[in-house]
Specification:
- The structure holds two protein chains of two kinds.
- Chain A is mainly beta.
- Helix content of chain A is about 0%, strand content about 50%.
- In chain A, the strands form two sheets. In chain A, strands 2, 4, 5, 6, 9, 10 and 11 form a seven-stranded mixed beta sheet that branches.
- Chain A starts with a strand and ends with a strand.
- Chain B is mostly beta strands.
- The chains are: A mainly beta, B mainly beta.
């Protein structure tokens, strides 16, 4: 089956610093990747959709200057949380699809971000 | 945004019991998906239901899609501790191919 990895699995950073999270499709080319955020005991909330080689589309209420998304290749998307604050602490999950359309998304294992 | 409401939000049962989890919406979906998520991990797809009235079985799990394609249910027979996790339903948004997730049902099965 299709495998999506995320790195790091967990990260602790100080308030005001930036942190980068990587999402990789290991055995397929991902034309589209999605970034979700999940707070404890809550569901996944879509943050943005990124297509390879183009700018990401952000959901309403998500600050694009704070959450920088780069999808520079067909196997890698990155999410950079800039000037992180404690309220950015969350579980960040990416998913990837091999085609543009309503096809199955393959989810990564998530990255736990804690901002102190 | 098409909202998906799940009930119950929490469920704690003993091993061997049966349970049903519901996913409801006022919107029509072309398909609905069910995922299971364990703590600290990403969600794993269990099933996709596409046709109104469709019933799919996955071992002790039975999934049903409502005739009007606005709701779905997940029934687990003889629950086991390994069934413990967060069950999420999800559907594609009208505007594209991003997934909208319900709030989830957190299931705890105790021995």
């Amino acid at each position: 089956g299709a495998v999506v990895s995320q790195h790091p699995s967990w990260v602790i950073c100080k308030s005001g610093t930036s942190v980068k999270i990587e999402c990789r499709s290991l055995d397929f080319q991902a034309t589209t990747m999605f970034w979700y955020r999940q707070f404890p005991k809550q569901s996944l909330m879509l943050m943005a959709t990124s297509n390879e080689g183009s700018k990401a589309t952000y959901e309403q209420g998500v600050e694009k200057d704070k959450f920088l998304i780069n999808h520079a290749s067909l196997t890698l998307s990155t999410l950079t949380v800039t000037s992180a604050h404690p309220e950015d602490s969350s579980f960040y999950i990416c998913s990837a699809t091999w085609a543009s359309g309503r096809v199955e998304q393959y989810f990564g294992p998530g990255t736990r971000l804690t901002v102190t | 945004t098409q909202l998906l409401e799940q009930s119950p939000q929490f469920l704690s049962i003993q091993e061997g019991e049966n349970l049903t989890v519901y996913c409801n919406s006022s919107s029509v979906f072309s398909s609905l998906q069910w995922y299971r998520q364990e703590p600290g991990e990403g969600p794993v797809l269990l099933v996709t239901v596409v046709t109104g009235g469709e019933v799919k079985k996955l071992k002790r799990l039975t999934f049903q899609f409502g005739d009007a394609r606005k709701d779905s249910s997940l029934h687990i027979t003889a629950a086991q501790p390994g069934d413990t996790g967060l069950y999420l339903c999800a559907g594609f948004s009208n505007s594209g191919y991003a997934l909208n997730f319900g709030k989830g049902t957190s299931l705890l099965v105790t021995p």
